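WARN  no MSA supplied for this record, continuing single-sequence
INFO  ligand: alpha-D-glucopyranose
INFO  echoing inputs
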Amino acid sequence: MSNTYPLVSAPGREWWRSAVIYQIYPRSFADGNGDGMGDLKGITERLPALQELGVDAVWFSPFFKSPQKDAGYDVSDYKDIDPLFGTLQDFDIMLAEATKLGLRVIVDLVPNHSSDQHPLFQAALKAGKGSPERDMYMFRDGKGKNGEVPPNNWESVFGGPAWTRITEPNGELGQWYLHIFDSSQPDFNWRNDKVAEEFDDILRFWLDRGVAGFRIDVAHGMIKADGLPDVAVNNSTMTGVEKESEEPHPFWGQDGVHAINHRFRKIMDEYEDRAMCAEAWLPTIDKMALWVRPGEYHQTFNFGFMSADWNKSEYKDIVDESMDAFNGVGAPSTWVLSNHDTIRHATRMAYKSVPKQGDGIGPDYEQPDEAKGQRVARAASTFMLGLPGSSYIYQGEELGLPENTTMAPEFRQDPTFFRTKGERVGRDGCRVPLPWDANEKAFGFNQTGEAWLPQPELYKTYARNQQRGVAGSTLELYKRLLKLRREYDLGNGELVWAPEHSGETSLAYINNGVLVLANFDGPAIALPKGELLATTQHDLSIEEVLEHDQVAWIKL
Ligand code: GLC
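INFO  complex generated
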């Protein structure tokens, strides 16, 4: 199927139902001006590589004006580009180029919190207790005799208390403000309509500029329970802790968030063919599906799939659960294995278990079995890309790029590292600049050799130029899978399990006449008859058996 962009999709076949969306992490994709930090100019020059890869859309992590305390997820001006990445004009040039190449552009919207340098927060600090300015954020008096105890027991996702006490304009210690993340990221008060109005305007600003949609940051956290009650168990991941008997979590997944989802959706519907994807870490797939009911988001990240272990029963169950839950509300399922907050799956899948989401792997941790990681990651991606629905690819995974697991403490940038005094190393290991060319400085990330995070020497062997045109390389595997996915319209297809082709440790499904067969562990299994379309073993060589940790696509 040819890419129809910029035509408007047909009802029921909207582009986002089946799109393969590539996540660009602007700091690390390509650096046009050689300062060691990726930028829009660098990205624009490298966009043809993404067209060649065969993706449909590109989602950009934030490039807005920001003090960069949380790598751009601390925004001080939502309607401008940070000089680190370029200008609005550079954005327009990039968008025009992407459109020419048939790639839709999705930007990241961060509505749960702003930077503490945002003019609205600065105004709130100055205006004093009880002012309308303060009501835009979550200010509260402290407890204790002199207000010296934080208003409740909430902890920041990045470690330490979720409250910081301010010095009032008169020089005295005063109120506390809430920050579910770093202290540089104060939470907005979404019960105040003025906050919603600000964001109406921001959405329209980018939609008018021509973006295809938004990835919405922390889409499950914007409403906090009335009275801000203590949490039963503090938890440093974004899923919240919830058991049948417990009260709903006071800041994750509150019912009130759905009114915001509806409000965003109404604005999206004023424009043609745009879509939003929610970043909503919720404990079950059924809960995630609540974010994509009619009138809410178009998509939500399937973090259940991302956290599933590579074995037959977990993969079967998570796919069943996802298809049931998302089909049940008329939304496509999404599929995702890596992003800028998690350990890259080429490394994660080398382990039986890894530190919890966001904590990362450092040099003191047991180092991964690289070959195993490669094998399982290629297999999991090949299983994923055959599934109906929309898939996300995180930059570098098409190269099989592993995590940097040996980064020395002096290079760390993630606030998690600092807020936990190095106890949790954080997410820098998955954010390292991409290798483009093994023979260039900084492996072709730029021409000067600068890099804001160190690239491990082993990235050389993963460089794009080492893989391009090389049969059996991970890059060629991804290209082939994406081409076939289009040809057989798998994104819009229907999944039917094929138990007749599955064994004790293998799992098979058929989508639009393509059999996807995965062998998880145990002995090699016989390949069914048919045309071998793709295989993780050796791209397109004729094979009779499928070894463990391998996946094949066969045209029946
Ligand atoms: C989301 C982002 C993450 C960021 C956090 C706070 O989880 O993906 O990178 O640190 O929100 O904005």
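Residues 1-6 have pLDDT under 50 and may be disordered.
INFO  checksum written, moving to next record
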